[in-house]
UniProtKB/TrEMBL annotation:
Molecular function per GO: fructose 1,6-bisphosphate 1-phosphatase activity; magnesium ion binding
Classification via PANTHER family: FRUCTOSE-1,6-BISPHOSPHATASE-RELATED, SEDOHEPTULOSE-1,7-BISPHOSPHATASE, CHLOROPLASTIC
Occurrences of domain Fructose-1-6-bisphosphatase class I N-terminal (ranges): 39-148
Record: residues binding Mg(2+) 2: D95, D98, E238
Cofactor(s) listed: Mg(2+)
Similarity field: Belongs to the FBPase class 1 family.
Residues involved in substrate binding: D98, G99, S100, S101, Y202, K232
Source taxon at top rank: Archaea
Gene Ontology biological process terms in this record: fructose 1,6-bisphosphate metabolic process; fructose 6-phosphate metabolic process; fructose metabolic process; gluconeogenesis; sucrose biosynthetic process
Binding site for Mg(2+) 1: E78, D95, L97
Protein name in UniProt: Fructose-1,6-bisphosphatase class 1
Protein source organism: Natronoarchaeum philippinense
EC numbers for this chain: 3.1.3.11
Length: 289
């Protein structure tokens, strides 16, 4: 971005698209780098999770590629204590390898990226783009900007459009994390109702669990827990980008009290309960959460 002139809408469109083009371009190398790196290191990330070798490698590859982009000012990662200063421009939040505890069993993992206009930590209302990659049987990417979300298949690092993402009106799936022995009783009652209406599909990686809600309609939650009121997921890196994408696709996201996009951002690694999906399913969440 120019230092003298405010960026135009076209500049912003280009920067957001460059970010996702760069992430897509990196996916073959990222996928390859999992091989031989499924083991744990002795290090913990700022949230206290044990880091795998692949967590660290994904972070290194992404900071190297995204940090060099013209128009990117800050790279912040779930795997780093502090943001990296890259120059002038937008702020990126990156969960390099979401769902990394799935690597042990060779289940789904992904990458989540938020593009914020402003310094971090920032409100979700400052997002100007968000997207995620799913390293599934095939590599796909969902990218949202403003009111539009698009799903791509990523072939040899190139995005090929599959469809505009529009949440189905008739929901069919749900997935709730945290374990029912840890849920508060109000959520337990909600879960009981939802269980009798929808089909349980829980994969243990936010990208996969939200991705199937976007495909089939439904609700995903990582709720407030008895032992941890703030839940597990990170506001800047996970909840805000997913909330932005869900909104663009016609759904919503809440922390139980307010839209995730209105949660006040106090710390880079702060956690939040997260409930996302079809609006009518979220409207039924109990007040006492
Ligand atoms: P992971 O710890 O494997 O990286 O926030 C991280 C996350 O996975 C999410 O992707 C996922 O939704 C959640 O944690 C899974 O938590 P549980 O292991 O408690 O199910």
């Amino acid at each position: 971005m120019s230092e003298q002139l405010a960026p135009t809408d076209d500049d912003i469109d280009r920067i957001v698209d460059d970010v996702f083009e760069t992430v897509a371009d990196a996916t073959p190398e990222l996928r390859r780098s999992i091989r031989g790196r499924r083991g744990e290191t002795d290090d913990e990330n700022p949230s206290g999770d044990r880091q795998l070798e692949a967590d660290q490698q994904f972070d290194r590859l992404l900071v190297d590629r995204l940090g060099r982009l013209d128009g990117v000012g800050t790279y912040a990662s779930e795997e780093r204590d502090d943001p990296v200063d890259c120059g002038e421009g937008v702020s990126l939040t990156v969960d390099p390898l979401d769902g990394s505890s799935n690597l042990k069993s060779n289940n789904l993992v992904g990458t989540i990226v938020g593009v914020y206009d402003g310094e971090l930590p920032a409100s979700g209302r400052n997002l100007i783009g968000a997207g995620y990659v799913v390293y599934g049987p095939t590599t796909t990417m969902v990218q949202a900007r403003g009111d539009a979300a698009v799903e791509y298949e990523v072939v040899d690092g190139e995005r090929r459009p599959l469809r505009p993402v529009d949440l189905p009106d008739d929901p069919t799936v749900f997935g709730f994390g945290g374990g029912d022995d840890e849920w508060v009783s109000a959520f337990e009652r909600y879960a009981q109702e939802i269980r009798s209406e929808l089909k349980l599909r829980y994969g243990g990686a936010l990208v996969g669990d939200v991705n199937q809600v976007l495909r089939y309609g439904g609700v995903f939650a990582y709720p407030t827990l008895e032992s941890r009121e703030e839940g597990k997921l990170r506001l800047q890196f996970e909840a805000n980008p997913m909330a932005y994408i869900l909104r663009a696709a016609g759904g919503a996201a809440t922390d139980g009290d307010r839209s995730i996009l209105d949660v006040s951002a106090e710390e880079l690694h702060q956690r939040t309960p997260l409930y996302v999906g079809n609006k009518e399913l979220l409207r039924r969440l109990p007040d006492e959460l």
